[in-house]
Amino acid sequence: MNRFLSREDSFRLVRQIQQSAHPWVYDQEKHRVIIQDQHQNDLVYFRLPITLPSPITAGAANQVNYIVLLIQSGSCAMGYFENGVNLHHKVFRAYMVRMKQGKSQIKHLKTKGKSRAGSRVRLGETLEFFENINERLQEYFAQHQIHRIALSCSKILIPYLFNAKIPTPFDKRDERIYKIPKHIHLPIYDVLLDTHKFLLKGELIYEEPYQDLVRELLGVDNAVA
Question: pTM for the full model?
Fold first, then answer.
């Protein structure tokens, strides 16, 4: 079961969890609070809105600056946000897909190796594609303090992102990286905005036996109960 909460309701729920007798831990990588039993078994997961800072170190008033970065073969949508407001965005395209097979040039190279001129063109555009992405990321990092990097990128593309000629302004093990827990369609501007709306919400994830615990934490008089 799952239930979405606004930022305000999410903040109240975090405070309720902190004040309750239930053990909990904060998962930095997935930006979520995990409510446990006395034996450290996980009962309820609460994914926090991206605009809420860590419940361990900060309060609701802190500003959160972040990047949303969506990458698929030949398509990238990215944006810089401050406290839920998109201040800049960019969409990149590249000729990376082999038209007849519908397969990216990167996947083709892993199975068949280099081939004809068309493949070399696609490979060249692939390299330039990631250089353009990193160049824009460099600009964001130079101009702003970045607290979070919300990322959706397939594993096969990760080496191209982090090994591009223009370097990525963060390491692939950077603690600020937050892998978006959602399937992303072809990255375009509208998909970027839809993904951001998802990230702005808190999400309770739990099994039916723990529904009473969730209701207790939300409060019987809470508007979201």
Answer: 0.84
List pLDDT tens digits, range 118-148.
565 566 788 899 999 999 999 999 999 999 9
Percent of the chain with pLDDT over 70: 83
Single out the residue of 23, 21, 20, 24 nearest to residue 12, CA to CA: 20
- What is the pLDDT confidence band of residue 56, given thresholds at 50, 70 and 90? confident
Render pLDDT for 160-194 as a digit per residue (tens, 0 to 9). Answer: 999 999 999 999 999 999 999 999 989 999 999 99
What's the CA gap between 185 and 191, in Å, rounded? Answer: 7
Per the structure, how many domains does the chain have? 2
The CATH number for 108's domain is: 3.30.420
The answer to whether the beta carbons of residues 182 and 100 sit under 8 Å apart is no
Report the C-alpha gap between 83 and 186 in whole angstroms: 25
Range of the domain at 26: 2-49+201-218
